[in-house]
Amino acid sequence: MSTLTQDVRMTPEQREAFERDGYIMLKGVLNPDEVAHYSAAIDRAYDREKAAGNLGIDGSLHKLSAVTNCHELAGLINHPKTFPFVWEMIGWNIHIYHSHFDVHPPIRVQKPPRFEWHQDGGRQNRELETDPRPRVSVKVAYWLSDVSEPGRGNLKVVPGSHLTNWIQGPPNRNMEWPDPEGAIEVTAEPGDAIFFDRRIWHARSNNYSDFTRKVVFLGYLPRWIHIRDEVADLPNQPWWNDLDDVQKQLLGAFGNGDGDHQWGHYPKDVPLYNWLAERDLFNPDNPPLKA
């Protein structure tokens, strides 16, 4: 659905806001046709998972490895209106390590309390010892449903909390507990995207509205860190060769077998490096290695 272009750059004001708050809103990055296309693809995937008995007891779906399990989402992985923010923030030697698409129908019965506030990264948050811990990765959330009002399954964040390793929580996650101080629900319309630092403390609001929540999350980090998504069989899929070289890199495609491709020792072997070099788009904060 999309072709990578060079007409979007992170402005100094956006970079300042991202560094300060840990996230920025990108309005209208998907046009109505794109929203309809990706929403319909997720609907088909949802129906397949429903037929297979893989939905939650509330009818919800949290499906990992987004493109592996819904290849029609491939156009989002290097979307021209969001992907420049990724490479400008964490460079060109990157891939998608973790992704998922979520469907949450309206909740008709009050859910029991559960404290779901967290930082992304899993064991990174236990095994990296600095304070604050390093950014490591960034994430893009594409909204395909209307969360322009709170309580529709909105992303909840604490602005600025990406620089905080710990927040106050309950002794038991299944007890009633208030949201952290300063927490907000981020409102968005279909086609909006949220670009955020994996360290920001975040959660999801319960969807007690009449809307079904639909959203796609794609997380990016350096290629020398292992991918969480299931990608091993992707080169055998019939749609794999429809992707461009940058998309294949982002989904974990390997290089020429010399063992160094993921480390970026040879920049000209990295498709995104070449794409940026041809267009003189390098971010001076992330220069290539000296040859």
TrEMBL record:
Transmembrane segments: none
Matching Gene3D superfamilies: q2cbj1_9rhob like domain
Gene Ontology MF, one: 2-oxoglutarate-dependent dioxygenase activity
Name of this chain's protein: Ectoine hydroxylase-related dioxygenase (Phytanoyl-CoA dioxygenase family)
A Pfam family: PhyH
Keywords: Dioxygenase, Oxidoreductase
